[in-house]
Specification:
Elements lengths: L1 H4 L2 H6 L2 E5 L2 E6 L5 H10 L7 E7 L11 H9 L4 H13 L5 H7 L3 E8 L10 E3 L8 E6 L5 E7 L2 H4 L12 H10 L1 E3 L4 E3 L6 E6 L4 E4 L2 E4 L2 H9 L1 E2 L7 E2 H10 L3 E5 L10 H18 L19
Parallel strand pairs: 2-15, 3-4, 3-10, 4-7, 10-15
Antiparallel strand pairs: 1-2, 5-6, 6-7, 8-9, 11-12, 13-14
């Protein structure tokens, strides 16, 4: 059903489709194609429109293609015809892949977004920073487009930090965290940790550069000691079992409708095509091992950094 619903050339040149516990996993090179993937999944009824975006990325990807504003509005008003969606997606990919979230929101593909990471890019654009309530410590931004629809963007740190901060049970009575947790489909108190039905369907999108660190202009894949720390860090209460970052991440994946993995080899570290590819392979293998129990087949994936369509 999924293969028949997506354009044949898109599947052949952009996406590699695999499955994790019966969840579709789309693997591709450029994060800019994620909006187009979500659009087609919604056309097939696999994902609600709009859906909630939960992203893990080293960058915020919250820029905007101002010169295409009228074309974006015309596309939305025409019901998002497929040729226009493909054109806009190609423009996103050609513009450094960092504009797809805001454009996807304006087109009605994405509703609200929860963004983990962003260590390599703390920028925001045209949004209004807000407090979800008087006691909230969550960093959030409200974006309103010409159609007056409001979109909430919640910015979070790395999961190892947030699992002992914004995801802890002592926040569960605050209104802001009820909103945040409902979007995520997460509930936590001193007796249990559990995922529940989220407000909307969730698309989880993972850019492999989330698992990198940066020193000046040099990017490095996480060393083994960082993987061990990030995946083992967790929360626990005296009345409940401990939950690690790895457990949370895996259950978040299982609670989503679609898993999207952007390889982005050029941002995985290195100076040459070979180094891009090798570092991308290394990060993917670690993510596959720690989060997905080696259920994905790396031999079927093209790790070269060039984007072909």
């Amino acid at each position: 059903m999924i293969k028949k619903g997506l354009p044949e050339d898109l599947l052949r040149n952009a996406f590699n489709l695999q499955f994790f516990n019966n969840k579709p996993v789309f693997i591709h090179r450029s994060h800019g194609w994620t909006m187009y993937l979500a659009y087609h999944a919604q056309q097939l009824g696999l994902l609600s429109k709009p859906c909630t975006l939960v992203m893990f990325d080293g960058h915020r990807d919250m820029s905007y293609l101002r010169h295409l504003k009228k074309r974006i509005i015309d596309c939305r008003n025409a019901g998002n015809p497929q040729p226009e969606m493909e054109f806009l997606s190609k423009e996103i990919v050609d513009s450094n892949n960092n504009t797809w979230i805001r454009i996807g929101m304006q087109l009605g593909v994405f509703g609200d977004a929860i963004l983990f990471g962003g260590a390599h890019d703390r920028s925001r654009e045209n949004g209004r920073e807000i407090k979800l309530d008087n006691s909230s410590s969550i960093s959030a931004e409200e974006i309103v487009f010409d159609n007056k629809l409001r979109h909430l963007v919640i910015y979070l740190d790395y999961l190892s930090s947030e699992i002992s901060n914004q995801l802890r049970g002592e926040y569960h009575e605050e209104a802001s965290h009820n909103l945040f947790w409902n979007l995520l489909g997460w509930n936590c108190d001193e007796y249990r940790f559990q995922f529940t039905q989220p407000t909307r369907d969730v698309l989880i999108s993972i850019d492999l550069d989330y698992f990198t660190t940066i020193w000046k202009e040099c990017i490095f894949p996480w060393p083994e000691c960082v993987w061990e720390y990030e995946m083992s860090h967790g929360i626990g209460f005296y009345k409940s079992e401990r939950l690690s970052s790895k457990d949370f991440f895996r259950n978040l994946v299982l609670n989503s409708q679609i898993i999207d993995i952007a390889l982005e080899p050029r941002y995985c570290g290195g100076k040459t095509i070979e180094e891009y590819r090798d570092n991308c392979k290394l990060i993917f293998s670690k993510f596959n091992y720690y989060i997905l129990s080696n259920k994905l087949n790396a031999s079927k994936i093209d790790f070269n950094h060039e984007m072909r369509f």
